[in-house]
Amino acid sequence: MLRAIYPGSFDPVTNGHMDIIERASKIVDVLIIGVLNNNAKMPLFSVEERVKMLKDATKEFQNVSVVPFEGLLIDFARQTHSRLVIRGLRAITDFEYELQMSQTNHKLEPNVETMFLTTSIDYSYLSSTTVKEIAAFGGDIEQFVPEVVVGELHNKIQGKRRV
């Protein structure tokens, strides 16, 4: 049985992320989406909110689960008994960073491999940062994120404006 993890911040999950999730779920037996709780970053959504949105967005995938984690990716791979890390690539700049991380992880744990999936051309330009910026200026984000994220993102941004 091939267990894989797809780690990320997912702040928020985009259709680019969903593309990778859908494709990876067809390759592996079990796909665990690891939602990173990184104290060094200031995410818009809490880890609990990101996990909930991802669970809602992926409920149709029978072999996908969503789990929060913090710390080293390799430790998360060990905890989940996963031997494969899935990473999405949008551009060559992503590759340079991801290659370095993959090699470091492999040095730390030779039994864990990394598989890169190139993002569909439909989403190669898309990032969570871009989506948040569009939403902050009142733009239409429906084509960029799962339906469950649209209302959550608008509510979060409106709540920040009131503060």
UniProtKB/TrEMBL annotation:
<keyword id="KW-0460">Magnesium</keyword>
<dbReference type="InterPro" id="IPR001980">
    <property type="entry name" value="PPAT"/>
</dbReference>
<keyword id="KW-0067">ATP-binding</keyword>
<feature type="binding site">
    <location>
        <position position="17"/>
    </location>
    <ligand>
        <name>ATP</name>
    </ligand>
</feature>
<dbReference type="InterPro" id="IPR014729">
    <property type="entry name" value="Rossmann-like_a/b/a_fold"/>
</dbReference>
<feature type="binding site">
    <location>
        <begin position="88"/>
        <end position="90"/>
    </location>
    <ligand>
        <name>ATP</name>
    </ligand>
</feature>
<feature type="binding site">
    <location>
        <position position="73"/>
    </location>
    <ligand>
        <name>substrate</name>
    </ligand>
</feature>
<feature type="binding site">
    <location>
        <position position="98"/>
    </location>
    <ligand>
        <name>ATP</name>
    </ligand>
</feature>
<protein>
    <recommendedName>
        <fullName>Phosphopantetheine adenylyltransferase</fullName>
        <ecNumber>2.7.7.3</ecNumber>
    </recommendedName>
</protein>
<dbReference type="InterPro" id="IPR004821">
    <property type="entry name" value="Cyt_trans-like"/>
</dbReference>
<dbReference type="GO" id="GO:0005737">
    <property type="term" value="C:cytoplasm"/>
</dbReference>
<keyword id="KW-0547">Nucleotide-binding</keyword>
<feature type="binding site">
    <location>
        <position position="41"/>
    </location>
    <ligand>
        <name>substrate</name>
    </ligand>
</feature>
<dbReference type="GO" id="GO:0005524">
    <property type="term" value="F:ATP binding"/>
</dbReference>
<feature type="binding site">
    <location>
        <begin position="9"/>
        <end position="10"/>
    </location>
    <ligand>
        <name>ATP</name>
    </ligand>
</feature>
<dbReference type="GO" id="GO:0004595">
    <property type="term" value="F:pantetheine-phosphate adenylyltransferase activity"/>
</dbReference>
<comment type="function">
    <text>Reversibly transfers an adenylyl group from ATP to 4'-phosphopantetheine, yielding dephospho-CoA (dPCoA) and pyrophosphate.</text>
</comment>
<comment type="similarity">
    <text>Belongs to the bacterial CoaD family.</text>
</comment>
<feature type="binding site">
    <location>
        <position position="87"/>
    </location>
    <ligand>
        <name>substrate</name>
    </ligand>
</feature>
<keyword id="KW-0173">Coenzyme A biosynthesis</keyword>
<dbReference type="GO" id="GO:0015937">
    <property type="term" value="P:coenzyme A biosynthetic process"/>
</dbReference>
<feature type="binding site">
    <location>
        <begin position="123"/>
        <end position="129"/>
    </location>
    <ligand>
        <name>ATP</name>
    </ligand>
</feature>
<feature type="domain" description="Cytidyltransferase-like">
    <location>
        <begin position="5"/>
        <end position="133"/>
    </location>
</feature>
<feature type="binding site">
    <location>
        <position position="9"/>
    </location>
    <ligand>
        <name>substrate</name>
    </ligand>
</feature>
<comment type="subunit">
    <text>Homohexamer.</text>
</comment>
<comment type="pathway">
    <text>Cofactor biosynthesis; coenzyme A biosynthesis; CoA from (R)-pantothenate: step 4/5.</text>
</comment>
<keyword id="KW-0548">Nucleotidyltransferase</keyword>
<feature type="site" description="Transition state stabilizer">
    <location>
        <position position="17"/>
    </location>
</feature>
<dbReference type="Pfam" id="PF01467">
    <property type="entry name" value="CTP_transf_like"/>
</dbReference>
<keyword id="KW-0808">Transferase</keyword>
<keyword id="KW-0963">Cytoplasm</keyword>
